[in-house]
Amino acid sequence: MTPRRLNLPDTAKIAVSDVDGRIHAPSAARNAQPILEVLRRVAPVRGTALEIASGTGEHVAAFATALPALIWQPTDIDEARLASIAAWTTDLANVRPPIRLDATVPGWSEKFDPPNLIFLSNLLHLIGESEARTCVTEAGRLLAPNGILLVYGPFKRGDGFASDGDLRFHQDLAAQDPSIGYKAFQTVQAWQAGAWLHPVDVIEMPANNLILSARKPA
Fold first, then answer.
1. By CB neighbour count within 10 A (0-12 exposed, 13-18 middle, 19+ buried), where does 78 fall?
2. Please, what is the end-to-end C-alpha distance for the chain in angstroms?
3. Residues paired with residue 75 on neighbouring β-strands, in sequence order
4. For helices 185-194 and 129-142, what crossing angle results, to 10°?
5. Domain boundaries, the chain
6. How buried is 134 (Cβ within 10 angstroms: 0-12 exposed, 13-18 middle, 19+ buried)?
């Protein structure tokens, strides 16, 4: 899948450093701390963590700093994002160099050793349903026994939306590409269950976002 160039709420606010290629997204700065609070509760204390679609790298830099016993592997599909991730994490000993990964392609899980944690943020609403299902299914295949999958982002609640703003954002995405948009969190949980995972919790987050947690049987 080639990266889509979508007009997103953060698009006009993203800034790139002329010095080292760091990209800053205000939304990443806002939601890193609430996500980290969840990670502190549910993530394994030590082991390895794979982040799918790491974006600017601000999330993984914050998580790796706060959770130093986890070894993080960031990934992304976009070359500019990969450079930004490297710049944000260059001084962090528990972050491996970022890897280019298209998580919408079947079979990608065969390229990695099983991690104890997989974290996916703000991707499923930006890709088609079959692509999103592939991403979740491959993550389930890859996880180590007793591993945890956390999926963060905006979701429909059944056939409805949490707010008028969510509905407008979904409609804006669909206008740019009819194949993309919000997925119901129940649909994603069904994909998790079909990928040998046990859905554990639906965690309410700021701005009507959710974290869907699932665990692979030991």
1. middle
2. 33
3. 99
4. 40
5. 11-215
6. buried
Element (H, E) at 31: helix 26-42
CB 98 within 8 A of CB 76: yes
Q: Convert the pLDDT of each residue in 72-129 to its tens digit.
A: 999 999 999 999 999 999 999 999 999 999 999 999 999 999 999 999 999 999 999 9
Domain at 11-215: CATH architecture: 3-Layer(aba) Sandwich (3.40)
Count of beta carbons in the 10 Å neighbourhood of residue 124: 29
126, two tokens = 């930006």
CA 212 to chain centre: 11
Distance CA 72, CA 120 (A): 13
Number of Cβ within a 10 Å radius of residue 84: 27
How far apart, in whole angstroms, are the C-alpha atoms of residue 215 and residue 26? 30
Whole-number Å distance between alpha carbons of 188 and 179: 16
